[in-house]
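SEVERITY: medium
COMPONENT: batch folding queue
REPORTER: lab tech (J.R.)

DESCRIPTION
The queue accepted two submissions in a row. Attaching both inputs and their returned structure tokens so the on-call engineer can compare them side by side.

ATTACHMENT 1
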Amino acid sequence: MSSKKSVAQIIVDVLSEAGVKHCYGIVGDTLNHITSSIKKSNIEWVHVRHEEVGAFAAGAEAYLTDQITACAGSCGPGSLHFINGIYEAHRNKVPVVLLASQLVTSQQGTDFPQEVDFESIYKNCSVFCQQINDPTQARQITTAAVQAAINQRGVAVLVIPYNISLIKVEDNSRHKIYHPKPIIRPSNEELNQIAEILNNNHKIAIFAGQGVCEAHDELIAFAEKLKSPIVHTSRGKDFVEYDNPYNVGMTGMFGMESGTTAIKECDVLIMLGADFAWSQFYPDKAIIIQVDIDATHLGRRHPVNVGVVGSSKPTLAALIPLVNEKQDTKFLEKCRQLYIKAMDKLNKKAVPSQTMIHPQYLTELVDKYATQDAVLCADVGSAMVWACRHFNTNGKRRTVISLKHGTMANAMPQALGVQKAFPNRQVITLSGDGGISMLLGDLLTTIQENLPIKIIVLNNSSLNFVELEQKSEGLVDHYTDLQNPNFAKVAESMGLFAIRVDNSDFLDEAMQSFLSHQGPALLDVKTSSNELVMPPEIQASQVMGMALYSVKASLQGKMGDVVNLLVDNFIKK
């Protein structure tokens, strides 16, 4: 009996064996035999309305499950539309396979309609990018792609010419998928060197990033022994801030005075899985120790004194016994008091207002009524700041934000993938009005795929974060205004349950009704457009920029805007 299979079937078989559960995309001519093979497999096809959405959804699923997933598109524009979401997934170092179907081989290199050189385009945002030219190598190449995605942590792109996908070949290859889980920590000599530095210094701060995701207990035990404040990155939020008496919040533009002080005033900073990009927030004189699983990250953001390779969990487990327990808590107590003060300041606007709806208050209500294992996806812009500052994690909740790629329109598409992966969890978005508008058509996917995500639109009629950036640079804001529809009515016309709120007196009740709805829902909230995202340290250039903006705006007849900005941020409480 012949064991011949089509190349399309072999590719799908390998993905299924690797654990792929969903494939996101839009069908098309050159993809037809692949989607036909998917239909006969245990992989579920998720029909989105825009391929970019499919890549965002696949990447979010892989990000939260740590399992490989897939997306697929037709030739030319179809597979090209994935590019932004693929960059997002790749920068998040999550395992995704893109099946980019291609023109038949005889048409390639002839400038045929819809011809796109996918290999040259995707090679910069993937760990593997190769076209299958020999059908007998289908299993070998697909296996290599999956292995790269899983073990090099990134996107693998398979380019599949239509005529190759049809060919039947023997499928008796013994190539398999491997999921190794090595234990990686520094050498004993390196651990002793780190311990000696920690034992000979007193003001030690810990800077924890996403790399501590499996090391919460070890992190707390380490801080307890050193009496150290723990500062975390925005990507480390989910794994650090809960059940943590040593937490002093974030640093950076999203951060607060306590986190910045802990880093700036420490004698030793030990970085654990934190590849924090903004060098101006690193200490000037402290000894810096960096522990990271990726050797290329060591010292690339700021010079370090000691750089070692290791996963946080085994590294801390081996380091803790070598460290002497400290008794002096003055530095820790100072940072903790600053943290309490900073949180009180942030929460001043997290209350109802008679004249406007503060986005901080909106986010606090999300935090109050969301389930204990809810996932919050936030758009880039001011939405991500409010999510990082006002949505509390508890070891079960998660946040999904485009913090490395920094793209607009990520939240709603990512929520689709999260909900597909976790059908029984509450999935909420904090979407900007600019972001939701960009990929609005995929609200229809919530209906077609029966995905009960909860979409909150921060409707401030502007590209708010960009507007504030312009003002801080002394520019009168241009091209940031948005003429929005009633998003609730738009959503209703698509079949979603929807509510519009423009008065904070009604927001609490509306939030409860919205979150308790069984199907997909949208909450359109008219929020203040004058909220400043206040950094932990205000630079002189920022003060001068805002002053210059005030003068220019006044001269251009926008004195009312200046007054509103000052009143909302510096006078009203």
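ATTACHMENT 2
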Amino acid sequence: MSISGMRRAAVGLTALAVTVFGAVTTSPEQADAQPKPVDVSLLALNDFHGNLEPPSGSNGTIAGQAAGGVEFLAAHLAELRAAAKKKNTITVAAGDLIGASPLLSAAFHDEPTIEALSMAGLDYASVGNHEFDEGAAELLRIQNGGCHPVDGCADGTPFRGAGFQYLSANAFKTATGKPLMAPYAIHKVQGVKIGFIGMTLEGTPQIVSQQGVAGLSFADEADTANRYARELRRKGVEAIVVLLHEGGTQAATGGINDCVGLTGPIVDITNRMDPSIDVVVSGHTHQAYNCDINGKLVTSASSFGRLITNIDLKIDRRSGDVISAAAENVVVTRDVAKDPKQTDLIDRYKTVLGPVADRVVGETTQAITRRQETLFGTSLGESPLGNVIADAQLAATDDEQGAVAAFMNPGGVRDDLDAGPVTYEEAFTVQPFANNLVTLDLTGAQLYCVLEQQFITNRTLYPSATVGYVVDPNGTTGTVADPCAGTRVVRGSLTFGGTAVDTAATYRVTVNNFLAGGGDGFSALTGGTNLVTGQIDLDAFVDYLTAQSPVSAPTLDRIRTTAEVPAA
């Protein structure tokens, strides 16, 4: 319950109280006469990313249990609604329901996921950064329906749009200053109003391609929440829930219902929110937590439909304010009967997809994971699968564009590869964004700046096998304004093909178009010249798997530290 809510509730109780010897008490008769609070159950999820089928590998487990899959998600939602009995249930989500999706959903522009979540009873969802992957016009089509302007209705049936309401409070049309979509919704339960404000992270333009956010601007999350909270209160709404696609991370010792040492943007954002806001359903970091921050209930349900956050609210009938709020993250186990309607949906789209998904494109000698190695105590090291992808991108552009090195962003590596045959669908799940490869000219000095930006953004660029360099854990980190001032990368240690990079010389380097546009904070890449756009990154990955099959996990020795390579 918010601080202001407690005050308002106290005022209401005082009006019914009797003063005895200076103390305020309530008689049993008066207590019985007070109306019982309204019980509301919020069922929340986030970062589903189109995982209609149970995710594979580490993405398919949580809290030691196999979890996920929309057939099971829908079944668990139905069970939780039934268990709520007289409670009024509202189902909500905190963004990234679509985008970076497996082939079964992405091949149809995520229409299957929207249909599945609509059938599962979703009511409101905030817009995540991945909802902007194909641009604002496509997001509006996802909400309102209609066939895709290029691919049409690929499954042969009309797309009716989302059966739930997307909310986007802090994404504004730059030309008009108006919100792209409805900023909030008011939901009535037994005469009590509940306000839902939805938004994505302010930094969306830094992590989405520039085409995806063209014509849009994004406002501060806390300022926006406070603005619309005031507007809701003017409309008589005292129970306020924020669906925010931004989050945090708790310590590794924390379980799915803990809040151990929570860090990240969600802490500051929540602390700056108005006391009238009662609950924050968060996302983006793919973490699970259940927290109290400054008197507000703050939750996150990990990712891929593996958890449902079951939030119980008690709302005062007279004041309309939240009296209490409690939550539990519930695992979406696979030991329940599948929802048959979801099974039918999956089967229908798999039939339309045809044999493309099952085509074997290569083979691995062992499981190749995307997990990053530890680099001086942080997860800023290399990734076996990330390195393989960088090698694939170099192989696609070395002879064709004269590239001598390639770098891959970690956010673009979405899943692991199991040992054995690799299907097209599995390769797609690893690289689902359909980014183009871009080869460009960078000076040696610019390359050092790019590498220094890794320690500002806390994101490692996975290097191709031609690249080597040394990191000094005691070096200084540059600034956003001057990344080149950093000294984390030992000068003179960067090599391409074993030859030291000359800061004054120019080199052809391959990245994807997201990075080339400065994505993930790598603004130094926008200084590249002589850009040539190549094939889709997935095609390059598939070609590499086929040509190099069987592929093994590479040795992680491309980035080393001064402890491994003492200064000369």
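NOTES FROM REPORTER
The mean pLDDT is 92.
No errors were logged for either attachment.
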